[in-house]
Design brief:
Elements (H helix, E strand, L loop, with lengths): L6 E2 L1 H13 L4 E6 L5 E8 L4 H9 L2 E4 L2 E4 L3 E4 L12
């Protein structure tokens, strides 16, 4: 637990491991729970389109005290790349 009292759900860790080790998903979007006590998985996707991912982050919404506004998000995106020497992917 952090000093703020916010915890990370086990699903966050599980989904991250799927992305990192199994390469079964392309990105994960995390958010604060509605009661602001834990970080939860909002969405995962296998869609590699960067524009779709970026739009989801930029257009995220959250409610606070009955008002809607831009919502903070945390995200992990699995980029593919190749180096001239052949490393990467």
């Amino acid at each position: 637990m952090s000093k703020s009292g916010v915890t990370v759900t086990p699903e966050c860790i599980s989904q991250f491991n799927d992305l990192k080790l199994k390469k079964s998903i392309k990105y994960i979007i995390y958010k604060l729970s509605d009661d602001y006590t834990e970080i939860v998985v909002e969405e995962t996707s296998t869609d590699p389109d960067w524009e779709t991912f970026q739009n989801k982050i930029l257009n995220a919404k959250a409610g606070y005290k009955g008002k809607q506004g831009k919502g903070p998000r945390y995200a992990v995106y699995d980029f593919q790349y190749e180096l001239e020497a052949g490393e990467g992917t």
